[in-house]
Structure formats: structure tokens, C-alpha cells
Write a structure and sequence with these properties.
Length: 227
């Protein structure tokens, strides 16, 4: 049985093989995406040419340190391929993302990509989304109103995310509300409902966005599931 780090390394290595010379590559946030970024940096050292669009400040700093060439979303017309992790993946390849708090940029980068490929270990595959609390990014002004709104609309617990005893603040100065749905029956509808609430910037449901997911198992197997 492989340890989690080795499974993440395996899917990261698999994903780097999808990167062709000259591509513009979206680079995701999180522990699995970090394995990919490091694996990509190795290929770049061996001569692969590519330009990367980071999905968070954390990833931007890491990629710079590793010597990857970076660009921004404003400076590209389209991204060739985006590689990112996920918190949950359902059989239709709908996702919950945002465990690392980078969902806004991650969604924008995924939406601008010709191919959006998710890398994850098999524990992220679920029959139905919702066990993982859904991150909802909100503006700090009046965030309690939004929390109450979501709580009363869905009768669920909604918690303001904190980190090291302080409120967690995203790269864009927003807060995150983690909404414990338990199970989500209609992710598409919920995604729209949440984004319609005044004060909500974006939520962590990624519907009909992933082209494929690369799943790593603890026996060393890797399975690519295409949409
Ligand atoms: C960050 C994300 C991550 O991709 C997600 O949380 C998965 O992270 P990890 O690979 O560490 O399990 O959405 O906002």
C-alpha cells in the first residue's frame, strides 16, 4: 500500500507527460498540484519549454523559485491545459474545490483552459458531492448576512474559515464560508443559487469543467477517466 505522497507523485508524473512543448499551462493549488509543479519543473530543467499561469500567490512563489516561466491570465488568450487537484470528484466529474482557498482563481484558470485535467488520489472519488464542506468565497462586508442567508436557505451549518486563530483571507481579500451540505443532490442548481446571493463571489462547485481526472490508487495503479 503506497503512502499518500507516492500516489500524488504518480499522478503528477503522469500529468506532466500531457504537457507538450510550447504549451501554456495552468498550475493548480494544493498538495497534489504541488507535486505536479515540481515534476513539471524537472521536465523544464531537461529542456521542455512551457509558460505557466499560477492559480494562487502561493503557487506563483513556488513556481518562481523552481525557475518556471510565468505569465498571467490577462496576458494569454487561452490556456492549453490546466492541471489541478480537487477535494471531491463525482462520477460525472463534477468537483468540489477550494480546500486550499484558491477556488476563485482556480475556476477562472480552468474556465480559460482548453483542457482541464484533475489529479487526485482515489479517496477523492465520491458517489455524491457534499461530505466535504463546500467553500463559498464572500466579500468581508456583511459576511454574516451571507452566512445567515445560506444557513436559513438550506438549513445547514456554515462556518467562517479561520487559519492559525485568525480569519482566513483569500488572495483577493475575501473570506471563505465552509458550508456543510452533507450531500448535494443538484450541484448545477446549487452552484447558481449560491452565486446569486449578494456578497458571494464564487463557490467551489466545478460543474462540467473537468475534461478528465487522473486517479492514483494505493496499489500503484493510475486510471484516467475522461468525460
Ligand atoms: C485548493 C484546491 C485543491 O486543489 C484541493 O483542496 C485539493 O488539495 P490537495 O491536493 O492538497 O488535497 O482546490 O483551493
Amino acid at each position: 500500500m503506497l503512502p499518500a505522497a507516492e500516489i500524488k507523485q504518480n499522478v503528477a508524473d503522469y500529468a506532466t507527460q500531457l504537457i507538450q512543448p510550447g504549451m501554456t499551462v495552468g498550475i493548480g493549488t494544493g498538495t497534489t498540484a504541488t507535486f505536479f509543479i515540481k515534476a513539471l519543473a524537472l521536465r523544464v530543467k531537461q529542456g521542455l519549454r512551457c509558460v505557466c499561469v499560477p492559480t494562487s500567490t502561493e503557487v506563483k512563489l513556488l513556481a518562481e523559485k523552481l525557475g518556471l516561466t510565468l505569465t498571467t491570465l490577462n496576458d494569454v488568450s487561452k490556456i492549453d491545459i490546466d492541471i489541478d487537484g480537487a477535494d471531491e470528484i463525482d462520477p460525472q466529474l463534477c468537483l468540489i474545490k477550494g480546500g486550499g482557498g484558491a477556488l476563485l482563481q482556480e475556476k477562472m484558470v480552468a474556465a480559460a483552459s482548453k483542457q482541464f485535467i484533475v489529479i487526485a488520489d482515489s479517496s477523492k472519488m465520491v458517489k455524491q458531492l457534499g461530505s466535504f464542506a463546500l467553500p463559498v468565497e464572500v466579500i468581508p462586508f456583511g459576511w454574516k448576512q451571507v452566512q445567515q442567508h445560506i444557513t436559513s436557505l438550506f438549513n445547514i451549518s456554515v462556518i467562517l474559515r479561520s487559519k492559525n486563530d485568525s480569519v482566513f483571507v483569500t488572495d483577493h481579500g475575501h473570506y471563505i464560508l465552509d458550508a456543510s451540505f452533507g450531500h448535494i443532490n443538484h450541484p448545477d442548481q446549487l452552484c447558481k443559487e449560491l452565486n446569486n446571493i449578494p456578497g458571494v463571489v464564487e463557490n467551489g462547485l466545478f460543474i462540467e469543467m473537468a475534461n478528465s481526472v487522473i486517479i492514483g490508487f494505493d496499489d500503484g495503479r493510475i486510471k484516467e477517466i475522461k468525460k
